[in-house]
Amino acid sequence: MEIIVCIKRVPDVSEVEVEIDRTGQGIEETDLVYGINEWDNFAIEAAVQLKETHGGRVTAITVGGEDDEEVLRRAMAMGADEALHLKDPAFENSDGYGIATILHKAITARPHDLVLTGAISGDVGSGHVGGMLAAKLGIRQVALATDLTVERSRATVRHEVEGGLERVVELDLPALVTVQTGINEPRYVSIRGIRKVSGMEIPVASASDLGLDPATVGREGARVITEELFLPPRGEGAEMLEGDDEEMVDTLIERLREHGGL
Amino acid sequence: MSTRTILVLVERTKGQLEDSALELASEARRLSGGGPVHAAVTGNGLGDLPGRLTEWFDQVHVFDDLQLNEPDGEATAELLFALIDRERPWATLIPHTNNGMDLAPVLAVKADCPLIADCLSLAATEEGLSAVRTVYGGKVHARVTARATDKGFIATVRPGSCAADPTAPGAGGTVVPETVSELLVPHRRFVETLIPEAGAVDITQAEVLVAVGRGIEEEENLEIIKSLAEALGAEVACSRPVVDKNWLPKNHQVGTSGLTVKPRIYIAAGISGSFQHMGGLKGGPFIAAINKDPAAPIFGVADVGIVGDLFDIIPLLEEKIRELKG
Q1: Out of B115, B264, B305, closest to residue A261 by CB
Q2: Nearest residue of A to residue B206 by CA position?
Q3: B211, B270 in Cβ contact below 8 A?
Q4: Can you give the pTM of this predicted structure?
């Protein structure tokens, strides 16, 4: 089985004071720690587990610059057999549609029984790429998978729907599945594991390698453009307690009491 | 001023009309500039629902068919594509739900329309469709514009972010029955719908919930949360990362992919406050948030907030509550 997993490197902003940069269209990147997009980590694990069960090959693909190669190495350390780095200045500032366009060109040219993506990304969070890529490839897709098994040429997918419900569906391969967190327990990647794959050659493909008109991707080809970023009003509505821990907890208890919580 | 045709996908869950339907009807009305507002609704045996929707929409396109008994993103995308192709709306609005996330990207490629996902607000501008949406886990807002095309726009809109008009505009719309062809069948084969098992505790009935998120760091640390809940006579709830790690069963998860709860008091410890989590919290509870990140989005929706280390705050809170209760 040929499995393609599309991944992305994103900054971890969970405990960081994010600042808007001078262009007003990005965030200050100097102090940010980058890593694999959380959803994509589960997608890689799902791909590797399927390969371990059924045999075949896992290829990890990312669209990005020089620094983004690290997530491909990480995927290989987790068990991906091959990687492909789609890199071209023309790809910069692509929107979700542009990324799907680039990935489509790369994936349509190679065998693909199953394509996996993370359901969303921790930075843009649009969740566009998977569904758009599937539609461009002309293959079936299902979003937000919480379980995935393959039997011969058929995938059985459990996925999240409304009201806390999950639905189980079957799709004929080739298909694309976007992966939700919690679908598995991604394996630990040791420094030794990364070192083992550090010497492996990762092929790079540019717009011209893919036969892609640069005007259809990047900022120029974007269908949705970011005008400005701004910080939402902080703590609007919330009474932010002050003082030391003792004082804050005392006030909190008072508030809980006022609202009938004690 | 030009008028615009707006199409809204009306969603139902377990047969019930979602709040998003009326929110989107109202938002569509504002965007339309007096133009017609259409609805599309799918299902099997929709009964009087299409008629009720004519209060809010000028045209209600009804796809009522045995094949649509179980909602299917691919099938819905196909039906909407045909409708967009025929009616040529300026914009199509879809609730940003699991279902909307499943179908909108596919639809956007089929219909060749720019798509903006997870919008908090929308505006028609000279350049096209402008929207505010969140990026970086809700810590940053972005104003984005979808460039005008001759195909129209698609936007998925976060439930609860647009206000529904208090009363129906009395649109006096018409119901338009639509035919559903058989080509829907081979897309996905429905196997079953899974309903989360009820556990020993039912957090949906709890008056007071102590909820914990990623900030708890380790499974063993859950003890301080359980202990506080016990002191308060509360139940323990959590956000997604805790369930992803199997530290608590799924029936403790609050959110759009978990359970909907309606407590009076909600204490959120180490929870950033993603919209997926907050979407499961209804009934306007008093929310107390404890988080070490002063920029955590939870402080934007909480009533009272403490920026601090939950490993200090929670045990101290428990100790003082136990003292009070003697």
Answers
A1: B264
A2: A261
A3: no
A4: 0.94
